[in-house]
Amino acid sequence: MGTFPRKQFVAAIGASALLAACNAPKNDQAQISSAEPAGVGNAPPAGGNADAIIKARGLNPGDVDAALRTFVPPGKHDDYVMFASGGHSGQVVVFGLPSMRLLKVIPVFTPDSYVGWGYDFESKATLHDGDFKDATITHGDTHHPALSETDGDYDGRFLFINDKVNARVAVVDLARFETKQIVKNPLMINTHGLAVTPNTEYVIETAQYAAPLGWGYAPLNAANFREKYRGLATYWKFDKNKGVLDPQKSFSIELPPFFQDLTDAGKLDSDGWSFTNSFNSELAYPDNWDGGLPPEASMSQNAYDWMHVINWKAAEAFVRSGRASTFNGMALISIAQAAQNGILYLLSEAKSPHGVDVTPDGKFLAVSGKLDPYVQIYSIAKIKTAAARSDLKKGPYGIRVLPLTETRIAQIPIGLGPLHTQFDDQGFGYTSLFLDSAVAKWKIGDESGKGWEMVDKTSLQYNTGHLAAPHGDTVKPRGKYIVGLNKWSIDRFTPVGPLFPRNLQLVDVTSPKMGVIFDAPVGNAEPHYAQIIDASLLKPMSVFPVGFTPHSNGIDPNAPKAGKEGVRIDGDTVYVSMTQARSHFTPDVVHAKAGQKIIWRLTNTESTKNAMHGFAIAGYNVSLTIEPGKSEHFEFIADKPGVFPYYCTDFCSALHLEMMGYLLVAER
Ligand code: RUQ
Ligand code: CUA
To answer: What pLDDT, on the 0 to 100 scale, is given for residue 29?
Structure first.
């Protein structure tokens, strides 16, 4: 293919200024900076005129306090990074705290034409790994992000996120902030809870709506619902060296068809245990609903629901001993096996529970039922003592029941619709109140049940779901903030039509009285849950070694190299080996004949930070962003004859518009 020699091109435009601006700043400076007088860009307004500004804008001292607590000066970085689920956008949304600035959107279960997720060969293959019975699913409902942990604290290496609707789990590699793996649960259809164990031995995924295991069919009637419909807890083994979930070493525990919900893993004193709540202890199902109560009423008749208390270390040992069966390629412990081998217990919990959260010391469990105005506190030492008893009564499905009176040590009255709890570094818990639209702060007491009391409460706007706190799920919470993930924003923002933004609210918890200090609209689907990590623990790459491919997490031997580009035709396949660098694609013309298959490889050969390029081509549905050093690969059948410009979609240089080429597909 004829490529215009670079030297001739430079001579042809003959402008040294253009050259300097667009051709080759191979260092870490932004291109523009060399042309800009030092210090101009970030200079604050001269003088300092705070009083006049406060007056002119009608601010009160509280506003100014909030502004000072959240303001991060231009060019300065945030202290914390928050990973929020993107709800049914299928993504993860990344914010900086305290500024609440949006830093990134990571596509996970849904294709994204900016990142190119689902457009290149490798990411398409990753999406295919989440296929359901050969059907590629291009949506997801991301719910519960869970950061990888070492010794019970976030380590900044990986983020796990589940797809509630399709029971899939994804691994996001935080070296790249990119989705690395998607697995479809081979036994369950949908899921809700996701949690990691303290050394990321396992990622725990728990079911939501009961269905026959293994994606099977059973007519819906009373007998089948009881005997054939099932819940589940899956313990996905995480291979830390490879950074992937290993289905071969993972296992599941069959659970009754209560609708399991959220899960937390024990830590420190309670390491080896996990706690999964559920609703629908009534075992209500749609046939009951005909002419009777609607589902939400038939599922909330009982005063209590069932928490599942699971000794996962005992389950792991059981599987290793070879006694579990295998179903759809996954080790499966039956309810009877779990009940008889000290693996599974039931414990009463307040009705319609959602959050179940282990305190940072691993000693207590905070559970709240949305229809019960208390946070219920259980002692895990007492749970373990009770579990060791040989005279426990059997409950549903022959599962032994831990006595509520022996294990629950306190109930803190906090208000209406308690939903989820987070912790700080000062010995306080924070529980969201969905119905009250508030957050309650309460003191962690002791084993005897003393000292558990609410100390503060503040309104949020509105209908708060989960809360997130810096390292709030770990053995070492960092305190300072609580973020309320509010479902409704109602009157908080400039109207943008009937599809309202959600409202993430930053709450300061360092003052004696909590207070909202920032409202961040989220013009994305619902952030169900978020985790917040100290930014200094994240060590992402900023450029890739040239020729890097995410698929093998290393250099691709087939990656196009500078000076070795070209087009090769072999039978009916056209192999394109292309590089891109400011401001040129090499080669810049590709010829094909209608019907030929094109296997196109493209390397961004830049080594300068931030020097990404895009690639998009008319008519053939390819859109990519290629970070410096990265090599991508895509394929299509050139079935439409015509002239198809391709170009760089990222404004990379002063000659960005000129960074283009043609695919010419001739008639046969
Ligand atoms: S969830 S709030 Cu998975 Cu709690 Cu939606
Ligand atoms: Cu490369 Cu624009």
So the answer is: 41
What distance in angstroms lies between residue 25's CA and the mean position of ligand 1's atoms? Answer: 47
Q: Is the CB of 648 under 6 A from ligand 2?
A: yes
Report residue 45's pLDDT band, with 50, 70 and 90 as the boundaries.
low
Residue nearest to atom 1 of ligand 2 (CA): 613
- Note the pLDDT of residue 292: 80
528 lines ligand 1 (CB under 6 A): yes
Q: How far is the CA of 126 from the centre of ligand 1 (A)?
A: 25
What pLDDT does residue 5 have?
Answer: 45
Element of type H or E holding 566: strand 566-570
Q: Of the candidates 255, 311, 252, which has an alpha carbon nearest to the alpha carbon of residue 283?
A: 255
Q: Give pTM, 2 decimals.
A: 0.93
- Residue whose CA is at the smallest distance from ligand 1 atom 1: 528
- The reply to whether ligand 2 has any atom less than 6 angstroms from the CB of 613 is yes
Regarding the beta carbon of 478 and ligand 1, being less than 6 Å apart is answered: no
Is the CB of residue 502 below 6 angstroms from any atom belonging to ligand 1?
no
For 456-482, what is each residue's pLDDT tens digit? 999 999 999 999 999 999 999 999 999
Going along the chain from its start, the domains and CATH numbers come out as 9-70 (no CATH), 80-537 (2.130.10.10), 548-666 (2.60.40.420)
Q: For residue 471, give every residue at least 6 positions away whose Cβ sits within 8 Å of its Cβ, in sequence order, or none.
A: 153, 154, 477, 478, 532, 533, 534
- Report which ligand 2 atom has the smallest distance to the Cα of 651: 2
Can you tell me which atom of ligand 2 is nearest the CA of 647?
Answer: 2
Distance 116 CA to ligand 2 centre (A): 15
Q: What residues contact residue 554 under an 8 Å CB cut-off, 6+ apart?
A: 548
pLDDT category, 399, cuts 50, 70, 90?
very high
pLDDT at residue 1 is higher than 60? no
The ligand whose atoms approach the alpha carbon of 370 most closely is: 1
pLDDT in tens, 592-629: 999 999 999 999 999 999 999 999 999 999 999 999 99
